[in-house]
Amino acid sequence: MDQIAVVATQPGGPSLATDLILPARRRRQVWVQVGAYLATVFVLITFNFALPRLMPGDPIDSLMTRGHPSYVQNDRTRARLAEYYNLDGSMPEQYARYLKGLPTFDFGVSVEANRPVSSDLRAGLPWTLLLIVTSTVVSIVVGIPLAVHSGWKRGKRVDRWLLAIFMGWSNLPVFVLGTLALFVFSVELQLFPYGGGVTPLNDYSGLAAVIDIARHLALPALAMGSVAATWNYLIMRSSMVAELGSDYLLTGRAKGLRERRLKYHYAGRNALLPVVTNIGLQIGLGFTAVIFIERIFAYPGVGTYMFGAIGNRDYPALQGAFLLITLSVVTVNLFVDLLYRRLDPRTST
Question: Which residues lie below 8 Å from residue 57, measured CB to CB, with a gap of 6+?
């Protein structure tokens, strides 16, 4: 440390001291973030166990409801069902059993479906990921180019119209847009299927199967993506406007660079950094939006599975689906935070 202090007082010393100190500081910041992430995960795991059990009743009560296909009524059968689904022990015992199964993704057996929860989640997760990725692409393709053009034309008629449209669109909840899209394009115009992931009882293969999946995916992805596009637009436009008076644009104009190059290659690229964070957060929030969208379109993903588990008070299914969604959200947020520090070193100083 004495040598560093001496070097820092000599010509060229501050740069060397900074090179020695900042990497260590950045590493500490990364480890602090990772530690906070692990602590958050532990809290989520605990809440994931506790919250379903705070609901009135339990899964066995749901099975004992008269009219249920698996209706049971005597205490002996109830006790055997509770033992089969590992709901017969005390809360600490159930919690310990729950933690023991997490490393192997053993969430137990669904009370309603009588199948391992992990197998149901493996079947639904690809559909949910497909929906989230597609809606994210839609939000990027729609929001960012329009924001660059709008910000570049700040105050002009096209900017005022785009800003008004996106501001109004941003106030519409995703489930309202999903319902309207389903009614207009499926019920009235009959351009898209009513719901599901594929056409039932079809024998499609190859390109026909891809087209069938795309037709079922289009409306839910557009409903989610259009809402997310509003935030990409608003953030990108604001960042774009902040770049308009930059010195490098004045220098570029003085050099005779084309307007299109200044607009997209310089101003647009420099304005993109805040949008990177928003896109990452958007992917995380997409895991919560799918609960509503998948329910509206009967899409066979994790959101539909979780919605059904809530109605049946299915503890194992609720725990598995909720944990998968929450871990996805916090993991994406951690990745985005680390990526942002990498892209903008100023946040690490």
Answer: 313
Q: Where are the domains of the chain?
A: 2-104, 124-344
Mean pLDDT of the region 43-48 = 85
Q: Is 323 helix (H, G, I), strand (E, B) or coil?
A: helix
Instruction: Output the six-digit token pair for 99.
Output: 């933690």
Q: Where are the alpha helices (DSSP H) in the chain?
A: 2-9, 13-54, 59-63, 75-84, 91-101, 117-152, 157-169, 174-181, 207-243, 247-254, 259-260, 269-270, 273-296, 302-312, 315-343
Question: Between 5 and 217, whose confidence is greater?
Answer: 217
End-to-end Cα separation, the chain, in angstroms: 19
Of 69, 103, 111, whose CA–CA distance to 87 is shortest?
111
The string of pLDDT tens digits covering residues 21-41 is: 556 666 777 777 778 888 888
Q: Which residues contact 80 (CB under 8 A, 6 or more apart)?
A: none
| Token pair belonging to 53 | 């059990």
Task: Examine the pLDDT at 170 and tell me if it is beyond 60.
Answer: yes
Phi, psi of 193 (to 5 degrees): -65, 160
Of the candidates 198, 139, 209, the one whose C-alpha atom is nearest the C-alpha of residue 174 is 139
Beta bridge partners of 116: 109
DSSP helix/strand/coil, 80: helix
Phi-psi region of 201 (alpha: psi -120 to 50; beta: other; left: phi over 0): left
Would the pLDDT of 14 be above 60? no
**What kind of architecture, by CATH, is found in domain 124-344?**
Orthogonal Bundle (1.10)
At residue 221, the pLDDT reads 92
Is 322 or 311 the better-scoring residue by pLDDT?
322
pLDDT at position 71: 60
